[in-house]
Amino acid sequence: MNDGRKQIDREARAVRLLEARKKAGFGGVRKVCARFGWKENTYKAHESGRNGFDTADARAYARAFGVSYQWLYLGIGQPEDEDTVAPPVAIDVPLMSWISAGALGEQATVTSLSDFPTISVLDLPDGDWIALRVEGDSMNKISPPGSIIFVNRRDRRLVPNGCYVVADEHGRATYKRYRPDDNPPFQPASYKEIPAPDFDGAVTVIGRVRRSIIDF
Q1: Which class in CATH covers the domain with range 90-213?
Q2: 186 membership: H or E segment, kind and range
């Protein structure tokens, strides 16, 4: 989504938030924030459109003002409508380096994921997630360079043509597609002639890649 589209969405949500507060009849911003325990400066930035608000904020505002989440956040329907779909849930996923990801394959290694910066993403299924930024062209049919992939460490079951992050015995991690009839079975998926990885020793599956995103 480009910056212009983001600004339009942010400003439209701010207008709906202002309308919701006024219709609720709780008074001005200071009274509302005191009533619900919100930070006044944060709320002002949301209502003015200076800063955007996320799905968690939208759910809190919708409950407080008695309006539809879909209307407030997505602009669907009317304020008094009942929500017909569950709001998307955002989770914060640690964005790791490839070196750190490789270390996850070593059973003796204990890595605190709280040490890493996070990226917020909507509607991932239940799992144990890490995120990695793709480097190079070896998977550019699926994930161009600069893409961010989301890896479920809880899902290590090998499925033909599934994509995985794997590491060799020295902790060198890579992102490849599983082709069980090939040798090695973890292969590039590229528009370029990219050689298969040269693994050193046994290969450990870190997790399955279930989403790949890139900003344009």
Answers
A1: mainly beta
A2: strand 186-187
Q: What is the pLDDT of residue 110?
A: 41
pTM of the prediction?
Answer: 0.59
Nearest to 176 by CA among 146, 213, 134, 148: 134
Chain mean position to CA 22? 33
Amino acid at 69: Y
**pLDDT per position as a tens digit, 67-90:** 999 999 989 999 998 877 665 677
Instruction: Tell whether omega for the bond before 184 is within 30 degrees of 0, i.e. cis.
Output: yes
Yes or no: domain 3-74 corresponds to CATH 1.20.120.160: no
Q: What is the side-by-side strand order in the sheet with 163-167? A: 118-122, 90-96, 129-133, 148-152, 204-213, 163-167, 173-178, 186-187
